[in-house]
Request: fold
Amino acid sequence: MNAIKDLITKEPNGLIARAYAFAERAHKGQLRKSGEPYFNHPRATAEILHEWHLDDATIAAGLLHDTVEDTGVPLETVRKEFGDEVAFLVDGVTKLGHIKYRGEQGTAEAAAQSKAENLRKMVLALSEDLRVVFIKLADRLHNMRTLGALPPAKQRRIALETDEIYAPLAYRLGMHNLSGELQDMAFPYLYPQEYRLLLSTSKEHYEERMKYLEEIKPQVEKLLAEHGIKPLDLEIRAKRYSSLYKKLLRRDMDMGRVYDLVAMRVIVDTLPECYAALGVIHEAYPPLPRRIKDYIAMPKPNAYRSLHTTVIGPEGKTIEFQIRTKAMHDENEYGVAAHWLYKQKTDPSGRVKAPSGQKLAAELKWVQQLKNWQEQFSGQSAADPEGFLRSMKIDFFQDRIFAVTPRGDVIDLPFGSTPIDFAYHIHSEVGNSAVGARVNGAVVPLDYLLKSGDVVEVVTQKGKKPSEDWLRFVKTSIARDHIRISLRKKESAIRAAAAGSRSLARTELKLLVEDRVGLIKDISGTIAQSRIGILSFHTEAAKGGKFHMNKVEIQTNDKKKVEKIVARLQTVRGVREVGYKTI
Ligand code: MN
Reply:
């Protein structure tokens, strides 16, 4: 925590030393809400930037980031004292801070407008110089760490903004650890009840898992050593509460189905050692099928690289291993910032201005995509903030895709869905009689992987029946169930009817809502609390524009259960009317 002081001792007249003295003087006498000197905040921000291995100009700008905004120092003074580069960064951060995020306060429209404006500014800053965004992220990280001192309403607003803008942004920049930390810190403020529930139900599991991994750690070390692999590090990592909560929602709140509550991370020197370690581990402990993930051969969209596997360890307990090299580990932790680190190592003399190299450019394709959107919407964003926001949101959702009917209805599907899934989500008859599909006007095969924003048109033919082949590639249970039933009908109408009433027990909930940030999350969370699966979730604009109609299909036709859910949903803020029909 005193790395900045060390830098100053080394270079008492350097850029960082001068910025430190300047900012300390400028903030003199100012206090934070907690009562501590204000300067503690820019100093901590600079410490974080140093931890991320950023360059001197960025650290200096981190020290100075609030001087123009909060102490009235003219930007020109900063420029004269510290040069164009630092002044440019400070100015960028100041501009980003100007728009106040309104989040859930005010009308839904105002919230969408302020959020859209924020994202737009962020994207602009990104495309000009990523370092501005790094400073903003470090600033936010420290503000989140000290959020406890603020009044509750402000805590909630800042937590919401962090969860909806900064954490996804960090994720997209490949700063996995930061993204998780931001979400984890926002979680108790946004979902206090869920947080308390999670603490009480998972504490024992966590402790038991930690203890188990600590016990087998020497065994793993020995095992690897026997095969000539000496890990640089073998660490035990607990899953974050926020991501545990998300996973539990997908696993019907069943803690027993979360295998990676605590994972063992194996950090090795070279790429071949990653695969060698995986082999050694699999030889000693049987792997669980379908739980081996090679994110080295196929990195995640945010460039995350690692091998993951879940195995059955001693006493028949599951263990998740994450295996990676040190370089991959740094990239996973620091994301794009890691590229400055490596660049600086090879180029100690020159000033590091912006990332370059084809690799980085390829990894940052989405930045270009954001920029294109930004250009496309820059004329419209003032007139249509919600449209801009919608298009941004689409890409910020990670596991869902949003495909569109030719009439403009949005169909929400899991990642990996095909036109057949899409068809069954419109109506079972559309699915059953599908013979072809067009995506964005072009004919595609029925197992085509849909992307967000695809306009999908299903071609149907009366009297057609589904093909057994479809079962190989459909993604959603709703499509699979319908196909099976239709196939069985061919064989035995009676058997199909009996099976159908069981597997397709479902109810459609209709919710008239006044949209707000976080509403969908709250609705699905409320349903998940009752441990009932959600089969589909559609949103359409209702007449008048202000309201939306949400149609949610849930996996039960038990009237008592349904009525309980309806009663709970009526208490969710923003929900105006709830109706249902069993299908
Ligand atoms: Mn600040």
The chain has four domains: 3-189, 193-342, 399-498, 507-582.
